[in-house]
User: Fold this.
Amino acid sequence: MVRLCKSEWRRARVQAQRLADLARLRRVRDRIDREYAQPLNVEALARDVNMSAGHLSRQFRAAYGESPYSYLMTRRIERATALLRRGDLSVTEVCFAVGCASLGTFTTRFTELVGMPPGAFRRQAADAADAVDAAAGHADAAGTARDAGSAIKVEGMPACVAKQVSRPVRNREAMADAQTLA
Amino acid sequence: MEITIHTTALPHDDPDASLAFYRDVLGFEVRSDVGQGKMRWITVGPAGQPGTSILLAPPGADPGITEDERRTITEMMAKGTYGWILLATPDLNALFEKVQAGDSEVVQEPTEQPYGVRDCAFRDPAGNLIRIQELR
Assistant:
């Protein structure tokens, strides 16, 4: 029978607790991925795993490099780009469809992550789609179509790659004062 | 030259839990099961496709992996950022219902993606991301 000395045993216990805590954070992150379109907020997420909102935010950031609020908003913007690309929904409709209750917050965060406001993104996607259609019979126009859609062309890529490249770049930290979701 | 993709490995941290998931939830057949305790190597795969297997393996078993690296691997598994695989099925809804009926953690309900696929995602018991794409 193996006998661990006291300090080894303590270290093993600390590590087991750490893994359990990380698994809890994983469940929070997965819930954001699953339910981002719901009116989620950090308080509700924290309550679900018996943590305070502040503790959850700190732990989540330590594990994943950004706050749960930032992760949630990025997930929403990512989905918003997909819906805007479809072209059949207005910016306001898309904003609500991805779980944002405030058009202002949505537009600000969208612009930060994508590099242009959602309305401009939607127009550019529509132009790119038109250009691709027009190019169908004119090989010369293909280059133009490619330029027009350069930021957002994902057709033909393997799905997993398209998901990676179309994910908004996290180029800013979450807003420090954004404790609740709009 | 003919090459097939024969076996791909996913880590486990509780061999019995992972075995139950792949066998009972996904319906895979068990092709071999060697080792004991946490050091078990379990080969599973879809019935009727003997040429393609998933090996459920203990993480960090390579003796060249340091203690620090092993700890990082187990932490990434717990965080859900380590192993992942992409499966496909013609009937995504049926498979999703089956997985959801168990106590597996759902990451994404069946969703139409902008890049032209419909897929869903969930976790296996070790925290690996299992993404499933609809064949159409």
